[in-house]
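Deliverable D4.2, example record:
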Amino acid sequence: MPRSDLAKAMTVLFVALNLHAADQPPVGAMQTIGEIRSRTGLPLPDNPSGPQPRFPPGIQLANPLSADEAAEVALWNNPQLWADLATLGIARGDLIDAGLLRNPRLDILFPVGAKPFELLLNFPVEVFWQRKRRVEASQAAYDQLAKSLVQNGLNTVRDARVAHADLVLAVRREKAAEEAAKLRERIAELTGVRLRAGDISELDGMAARTEAASSREQWIRLQHDSLLAVERFRLALGLALDRPAVGAAGAPPDLTPPPVASDLLSTALVARPDLRAAELAIAAATKRARWERSRLALVAGQLSSKGIGTNGILTGPGLSAEIPIFHRNQGLIARADAEVEVASRQYLSVKQRVAFEVHESRELLVQAQEALRRLRDEVVPPLRRITELADDQYQKGDVAYLFVLEQSRGLVDAELRLADAEAAVSRARAQLERSVGTK
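Output generated by the structure prediction step:
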């Protein structure tokens, strides 16, 4: 082949390689966003919100939010979720860089005096066997990150649902504490009347006043707890800076028994994004190890031109290569092999954690559901009936009003425990959905 044709062929080859630098361009965050949508069953915009919050169609903060609506708002506005999704852009940049070729190097020595003209063009050759492995390693790392970010979306939904349940509970606890404080103050007043009449001792009167003061202190503390719950709710929704008025609408908790633990674990081992990401991390580490083994030395093809007396400029090919005498990339190869082992052991760790979280969250849900059923069926109804009977007896003049207040206090305490149990069911179900990896 003539030398000019050889140079043209090599130029065409390198242009073709550059045009084919990104064999499988990533789809950005769209695939991850779509998977979050399918797993949660909630809408998610294609792009992050700007400085001002955005809300899904039909949702207005003027109305108290349900748990699902709170999760939707969080997916639309939680800045940490969108910051995590933005890291895919960094991984995409690394993938593009992995597909690019090293630029050729051109050295020119100008003819000055008796020195002839010289031109040396160096172009990398090792890309023919390194580039494919480098791109595969970068693609695997990108896929691993994209899958892991799906778990971040599930965590965002879980956090929003838990914050919603906590706010509903905080409001109910505050109202119950207010009612309890008023009852105990009324009891203290009636006890004071009986004390002045000589019906009870000073010790009994002091105990009633102390209990009333303690109840009022608890009411004031729970008022602050409600304010803190609102702030945590805003943070979970991504509205901490704007601080709009938000409310949480309570709903009857779902008492449907969860599937057996073995079925849930089987689903989780297939559906959990972080477990799949751990699997992809092994693949990425393996591909990096293969790439490092291909990086033994730098090899460059050369095209040399030189002015030779009266013969003009003569051009010929050549080769430049490192001689792997002192090292053969042993350090990075050893590091890559260690990364494969770390990724493999990390996968087993994640698998263990998935099994634990599934069993734990299911057991907590079953426990909360059983406690709620007992309170609803065995504790609260009798106390309500006792309070009604006490009120009827008071109306007939058979008992004192203090007895009615004492029974009402027991009912208030039981309803407070009922609110705790309902919130525990909501939190446990949100945690179970996150543990399984799908709604």
